[in-house]
Amino acid sequence: MTLVELKKSIHKKVDELDDTNFLELVNAMMDNKDQIFQIPENHLTDINQGMQDIKNGDFLTIDDFEKRYERWLTD
Length: 75
Description:
By secondary structure, this protein is mostly helical. It has 2 domains: 1-35; 41-74, no CATH class. It is built from 5 helices and no strands. The longest helix has 15 residues, at 41-55. The radius of gyration is 22 Å and the shape is elongated. The mean pLDDT is 92.
């Protein structure tokens, strides 16, 4: 699909939409398309802690999780 075809396709779909919430979301995405996503500092701290936990072997595999919490999975 060429750029022109893609733009026409998007215009057609937008013109047919009656969902205000969705259109507002698309509008907000377009307004912010050039902004760089930055992970909040508290999230970075948690990510780094998780990475350190993995390096230290402090984690559960899915198999370990399923064995430990088998009763939750069968309820």
